[in-house]
Design brief:
By secondary structure, the chain is α/β, with parallel strands linked by helices. The chain has two domains: about 5-180, Rossmann fold (3-Layer(aba) Sandwich), CATH 3.40.50.1260; about 185-385, 3-Layer(aba) Sandwich (Rossmann fold). The protein has 15 helices and 15 strands. It is elongated and about 70 Å long. The two termini are about 15 Å apart. The model has no long low-confidence stretch (mean pLDDT about 95).
Length: about 400
């Protein structure tokens, strides 16, 4: 990674303005529902505090769309973070302004301040405001700290003020340990994977994953396609798909992908059977279909023969990248395919990388997270890295 990491800068006695991803679910009682993202930031937080720095943490939560909305307050994170680090965490009820300036200015080494939701200000995302307004907002954030650390991989693909603009106002900028880890696993693995390299792509639509598929086509040995996107491929091959989800405007694209895979010698495997249902419901009637899906039925998961086929391919892999479920795994009758893939990836003797919220949820739900080499914390960011794109949040750290 051609960027400084936090160990490359002196934080002793410094106020470290750190962008984290604390976009966590909050329960009705005001407690944090899942603290995975807080846990992920702890190594960098702990390092800065142990080195004698103080921390000003900033994050977004949800989509308040530039307005102050109490249901999107970061205040619930205070107690969760405090419990994790074993010391008090102060809170500023805005990310800029008099109170933020006062509290940041009073911070002593070893102390932590969490700022209120960045997205309460439209300038953070830059929507509906001009560049000068976003610059001015970023400058106010920068004035709170002496050095800047970015550890928010989940938003690294966004050109937001706290990610891609604030760095202009610091001489010292660095990546945190989480950001470094994500880049090392995702970017470096894709650069030089150990073969056989198997990519598993699922989810509802081709349109959301097309750039990933195209970028991986020159790198992988085998491409396994499941989930709703498979039915567009079936249709272009002349199969009937009943009421299954598909994209008619992507039929030519699916045809091109099949052709490209053949030309490049990539083994592209589609489901050979499907779990189909007569309604999109956990209570629907179900059966296994090989080939055509009749009218009045829709495919909602890969079938048992496909589970065996995909498992065998994964078992022989040395590198596995997985993004997207194999079916509607949230409903128990259609979870077997995704669970089988999760188990196969966990059992394989390989470097395994999982990105995308649904895939991550499935692995955690199955209790297999500790058997995966790397679980990415950023759905959109990991997708864009897999597409071969530059991420604004990373680019902003270059030469700093």
């Amino acid at each position: 990674m051609n960027k400084k990491i936090v160990t490359d800068i002196d934080v002793k006695g410094k106020k470290v303005l750190m962008r984290v991803d604390f976009n966590v679910p909050v329960n009705d009682d005001g407690t944090v529902g899942d603290d995975t993202r807080i846990e992920a930031a702890l190594p960098t937080i702990t390092y800065v505090l142990e080195q004698g720095g103080s921390l000003i943490l900033m994050s977004h939560l949800g989509r308040p769309k530039g307005e102050v909305k109490p249901e999107f307050s970061l205040k619930p994170v205070v107690s969760a973070l405090s419990d994790k680090i074993g010391k008090p965490v102060d809170f500023a009820d805005d990310c800029v302004g008099e109170q933020a300036v006062s509290k940041a200015g009073a911070l002593q080494p070893g102390q932590v301040l969490l700022l209120e939701n960045l997205r309460f200000h439209p300038e953070e995302e830059g929507k509906g405001v001009d560049q000068s307004a976003q610059d001015a907002f970023a400058k106010k954030l920068a004035d709170l700290g002496d050095v800047y650390v970015n550890d928010a991989f989940g938003t690294a693909h966004r050109a937001h003020a706290s990610m891609a603009v604030v760095t202009k106002y610091f001489d010292n900028c660095a990546a945190g340990f989480l950001l470094e880890k994500e880049i090392n696993y995702l970017a470096k693995t894709l650069e030089a994977p150990e073969h056989p390299f198997v990519a598993i792509i699922g989810g509802a639509k081709i349109s959301g994953k097309i750039d990933v598929v195209i970028n991986l086509m020159d790198k992988v040995d085998t491409l396994l396609i499941g989930g709703g996107m498979a039915y567009t491929f079936f249709k272009v091959q002349g199969q009937t798909i009943g009421g299954s989800i598909h994209e008619d405007d992507k039929l030519d694209l699916a045809k091109q992908i099949l052709s490209d895979a053949k030309a490049k010698g990539v083994k592209l495997l589609l489901p050979v059977d499907n779990v189909i249902a007569d309604d999109f419901s956990a209570e629907a009637n179900t059966k296994i279909a090989e080939g055509d899906i009749p009218d009045g039925w829709e495919g909602l998961d890969i079938g048992p023969k496909t589970r065996e086929l995909f498992t065998a391919e994964i078992a022989g892999a040395k590198t596995v990248v997985w993004n997207g479920p194999m079916g509607c795994f949230e409903m128990q009758p259609f979870a077997a395919g995704t669970n089988a893939v999760a188990q196969a990836v966990a059992d394989a003797d390989c470097v395994s990388i999982i990105g995308g919220g649904d895939s991550v949820s499935a692995v955690k739900k199955a209790g297999l997270a500790d058997k995966i080499t790397h679980i990415s914390t950023g759905g959109g960011a990991s997708l864009e890295l897999m597409e071969g794109k530059d991420l604004p949040g990373l680019a902003a750290l270059t030469d700093k």
